[in-house]
Every structure is written in structure tokens, then in C-alpha cells.
Design goal:
Strand content: over 45%
Number of strands: 17
Distance between the termini: 55 Å
Order of helices and strands: HEEEEEEEEEEEEEEEEE
Shape: globular
Structural class: mainly beta
Number of domains: 2
Radius of gyration: 22 Å
Number of helices: 1
Helix content: under 10%
Largest sheet: 6 strands, antiparallel
CATH architecture of the largest domain: Sandwich
CATH class of the largest domain: Mainly Beta
């Protein structure tokens, strides 16, 4: 009987929301990033930003409450999953409508899945996220959100650069430059948690990189050229 009442509450909320849902943009914005841990292990990062007032529900949510997030992966012989999708600590509250504890996330949240690669070649990881979004007074019906990760081929090098690479900081003016012997490099910024937050696939020698709008943090800047790569620390706290 309780589950019937819960479903009835959902139907009422969906009917209320249906008149306005077509007039608003979808309040969840996903980004899918790949973090290389080693030549054999990769971390897939599901980065979600929710509009103000909206939330997504934890994989561990009570089945009597809103629909929990569920990650489904398309079978692929090029990799195997290591454990399940990991999520941060969720916000917990007693919900009067559903009569149970509801676990949710708001603002920004990153879900992580480690995989073990079975090939050195590049491959795709595809699947979908079945999830429901809600606010204080409305819900969006659960739906499948497709995802796709492009896992790059293993780059065979010893990590050392045979050329002179230098990072030049002009933080008071809001930018940095990188000088090197090569004309082009791949530049990537990692935050203090080790997450890739910015990538420039083709950086031209000496060009300004605007960093004034990046969040205050201690970054690792990876610079890779045909001759190798170097890493630099960039303290913007």
C-alpha cells in the first residue's frame, strides 16, 4: 500500500511538472573525463554540475524513495571494471512524502569508475546513466543519459624530456606561458585531487594561457612534446 501511495505521489508530481518542463533547459550537465593512473589502469570520471535547486539521487538511495542513479556499461573486451562506480558522501535527509531517508547530491559531484585495460590501443567505453532529478517541489521523470569515454592508446615513453621546457608565471596578470624547443605540446592541468580539469591538445610555444578564471587550487601542469614530458606545480591558492 505504501509503495502504491509513493507511485501516486510521483505521478502527481510528474503531471504538475510536465507543464513547465518543456519550457526549461535540462538542469543537469555532464562531462566525461579519462584519468590515466598507469599503463594498465584508468579512472573514468562522471562529472556532474546541477543547476541551483536541483539534485540527483545516490545509487544507495532507499528503493521507496526517488529513483537512485544507476550506471550501465556496454560490454567491451578491451577493458574490465575494477569494482563498482564510487560516489562521494551524499546528503541525507528524512523525506516526509516518501517516508524514508533520501540520499542526494547537489551542486557539483563526481562519480568514479576504475577500469583495467586489456589492450594498449585506444578504445571507447560506452553506456548509460539511468537517473532522476528533483527539486524541493518537482521531479523530472527518470531517463537514460548516454555516456562515452575515449580512452587513449598507451604512450610508450620513460616520462623524461630531452628538451628544455620552462613554465613562466604571470599570476598577477592572470596568465602563464610555456617556452620549449618544440613548436607544439599537449598541456593538461590536474587539480589537487588529481582530476583533469583543463586540457589543451595543441599548445603553441609561448602563447598565453589565461588562468585567472580557474578556481584557487594547487595544480599539476603536465607538458608533453614529441621528445617526452615534464610536470610543473602551479600554486594558485
Amino acid at each position: 500500500m505504501k509503495r502504491i501511495l509513493t507511485v501516486s505521489c510521483f505521478l502527481l508530481l510528474f503531471m504538475t511538472f510536465s507543464t513547465v518542463s518543456a519550457q526549461m533547459s535540462y538542469p543537469a550537465h555532464w562531462k566525461f573525463n579519462v584519468k590515466t593512473i598507469s599503463d594498465k589502469e584508468v579512472e573514468l570520471q562522471f562529472q556532474l554540475t546541477l543547476d541551483e535547486g536541483w539534485k540527483i539521487f545516490s545509487q544507495k538511495s532507499d528503493i521507496n524513495g526517488p529513483f537512485p542513479a544507476e550506471f550501465t556499461f556496454t560490454p567491451n573486451a578491451n577493458y574490465q571494471r575494477v569494482g563498482d562506480v564510487v560516489e562521494p558522501k551524499a546528503h541525507e535527509e528524512d523525506d516526509e512524502i516518501f517516508g524514508c531517508k533520501v540520499l542526494s547530491f547537489s551542486g557539483k559531484v563526481t562519480f568514479r569508475q576504475k577500469i583495467k585495460r586489456n589492450t594498449d590501443k585506444a578504445f571507447e567505453v560506452k553506456g548509460s546513466i539511468y537517473c532522476q532529478l528533483g527539486s524541493d517541489d518537482s521531479f523530472i521523470a527518470p531517463d537514460d543519459i548516454p555516456f562515452s569515454f575515449s580512452v587513449p592508446a598507451v604512450k610508450k615513453d620513460d616520462g623524461a624530456s630531452t628538451e628544455n621546457i620552462k613554465i613562466n608565471t604571470f599570476l598577477d596578470q592572470g596568465y602563464i606561458t610555456i617556452t620549449m624547443e618544440s613548436d607544439v605540446a599537449e598541456v593538461e592541468f590536474f587539480d589537487s585531487d588529481g582530476d583533469s580539469v583543463r586540457r589543451i591538445p595543441k599548445y603553441n610555444n609561448g602563447v598565453r594561457i589565461i588562468v585567472s578564471k580557474m578556481p584557487k587550487d594547487r595544480y599539476t601542469v603536465s607538458v608533453r612534446t614529441k621528445k617526452g614530458k615534464k610536470k610543473f606545480m602551479l600554486n594558485m591558492k
